[in-house]
Amino acid sequence: MTRHFLTLLDLDRQELAYVLQRAQTLKSMHQQGTEYQPFKGKVLAMIFEKASTRTRVSFEAGMAHFGGHAIFLSPRDTQLGRGEPIEDSARVISRMCDVIMIRTYQHSNVERFAAASRVPVINALTDSYHPCQLLADLQTFQEHRGALAGKTFAWIGDGNNMCSSYIHAAHQCDFQLKIACPYGFEPDPALLQRFSDHVELVNSAEDAARDAHMVATDVWTSMGQENETSIRKRRFSAYQITPRLMDLADPDALFMHCLPAHRGEEVSEDMLDDSRSVVWDEAENRLHAQKALMEFLLLGAIGQST
Ligand code: CP
Ligand code: NVA
Predict the structure, then answer these.
(1) Which residue's alpha carbon is nearest to atom 7 within ligand 2?
(2) pLDDT of residue 303
(3) How far is ligand 1, taken at its centre, from the CA of residue 257, in Å?
(4) Ligand 2: centre distance to CA 112 (Å)
(5) Residue 277 β-bridge partners
(6) Ligand 2 within 6 A of 132 CB?
(7) Is 82 among the catalytic positions?
(8) Ligand that lies nearest to the alpha carbon of residue 162, given by its number in the listed order
């Protein structure tokens, strides 16, 4: 059966734990200079309908490390941008490539693409979810602080695609998630209700940060929402993450941001350089986590019978 990764729920809890642990193993192997090329002759198609730095570089570098190849495709110079149906594109690309990652707008686009694809499809960000970033965030927390289960995380800012993936992560990894958003910018109520065992909406950034083991945020204006930038700056002004806000959190708390960051907006000028910030490790772990994900989707769990 072809396995896709459109949200974090596409892996069961055991599989997710395996991928996170494998990501750390692949990171050590990479740091030690171990050559490991299980993807010789394999091709990743990367479809980007939105901009990217980390996602593109991490997938492309990951394929190079694994001995495979990556093809960058954008709607500007493929038939995708001229109205070729998603399903037809999926049928054709999946006959030529071994795995496909897509960054697009509507989540239904990746669902439709996956339904017509012969090979694994990975969601590299939609308006609704960003599960690859969560793999890196979860790996980073474990790397610095150990077990996720039983911890309390804070999401402060927009109830956006990252927030929705954090809700999935809370359920999958058994931590509590406190979410603070301005009125009108909360995550999907259906998600809050479905995962209410692990997720709670609170009234202020301070209420979310208090005693949290990890505080995360993201830009106030996501890709595709640029015309709302000025209203969002006003509505989100009480949701900036600062070292002072972090002082309310657990003394061992970490700070994460998927990046790119806007200093002076969702983070103060000094937040990314604070000793509690692990944003550069978090960014690097995109590489290792996605290598583990692609290996799992194509080759299954290494050294385990699943
Ligand atoms: N965090 C993230 O997905 O970054 P890019 O938009 O640069 O890929
Ligand atoms: N929420 C942001 C994440 C960027 C990586 C966006 O969708 O633009």
Answers:
(1) 222
(2) 80
(3) 10
(4) 21
(5) 255
(6) no
(7) no
(8) 2
251 cis-preceded (ω within 30 degrees of 0): no
Q: What CATH number labels 133-283?
A: 3.40.50.1370
pLDDT at 306: 47
The series of mean pLDDT values per 10 residues for the chain, 306 residues long, is 97 98 98 98 98 98 98 94 96 98 98 98 99 99 98 98 99 98 98 98 98 99 98 98 98 98 98 98 99 98 74
Q: Is 91 a catalytic residue?
A: no
Question: Any catalytic annotation for residue 97?
Answer: no
Domain spans of the chain? 8-130+286-299, 133-283
Calculate how far, in angstroms, residue 100's C-alpha sits from the geometric centre of ligand 2: 20
Among candidates 114, 111, 126, which has minimal Cα distance to 160? 126
When the candidates are 3.40.50.1000, 3.40.50.720, 3.40.50.1370, 3.40.1160.10, the CATH number that belongs to 8-130+286-299 is 3.40.50.1370
CB 160 near ligand 2, within 6 Å: yes
Cβ atoms < 10 Å from Cβ of 2: 11
Ligand 2 touching residue 216 (CB < 6 A): no
The whole-number pLDDT of residue 305 equals 55
Taking the alpha carbons of 250, 251, 257, 263 in that order, is the dihedral positive or negative?
positive
* Identical fold between 8-130+286-299 and 133-283: yes
